[in-house]
Protein: Acyl-CoA dehydrogenase
Organism: Mycobacterium kyorinense
Amino acid sequence: MTAITGQQLDVALADLGWLDMLDETPDLAVSLVFRLLGETGAHAPILNDVVLRSAGHDGGGTVALPYAGGCWVRWERTAQASSTLGEELPIHRVAEGHPVPLAAGRRAVAWWLVGSSRAMLSLARQHALDRVQFGRPVASFQAIRHRLAETLVAIEGAEATLHADAAEPDGFGALLAKAAAGQAALTTARHCQQVLGGIGFTAEHELHRHVKRTLVLDGMLGSTRELTREAGAILRTKGFAPRLAHL
């Protein structure tokens, strides 16, 4: 994990022209920056910027964000962590919030979850190659290979959903992309924990930090379970399933 604080990274991104990128090339900026946050284990309160920009406001502030279970949270632009959600993140619950556009924020969190999934898969893959049992790397065992393969398929599927939504962006596509990325991250956490075994539970190994981050991010702007139910309700109301990608 990186030693830089979220506040420091927030300032550094602003100096690099993050807000200008968000205005000029939002799809590229969001996919690149949020995926890198996941892959590196870093964090910054820039989800505020994405949501505020999509609502027609300037970035640089904070906004109350909906969270799983009908709660509201605020991601502060400070270095002081909160014990409410995650040990390393300055997020705390607030009593209420106002409706905000969700599609752009869901895409951003989805890319973050994809990046975190890639990081967990990399840790598990390297462990499987290095760890030797019965004179063979555990990567040669079929059960290990199946878990890693299922993880990769889940991640690639989530990325494909994000790319499909980027081609024809709409609120329903963003909802599905966030749900797919959350499900992929949860699947990744489960399989990678099994591959790593006991070492994955230790404070010295990085996996547990990515797992905790994944659990927090999954609840942001709607959890996987909530979004799946919402998607089902939308399909029942429409009476048909819309085309998500032109193959």
Observations:
- The chain has two domains: 6-94, 102-238.
- Strands lie at 64-67, 71-75, 91-94, 132-133, 136-137.
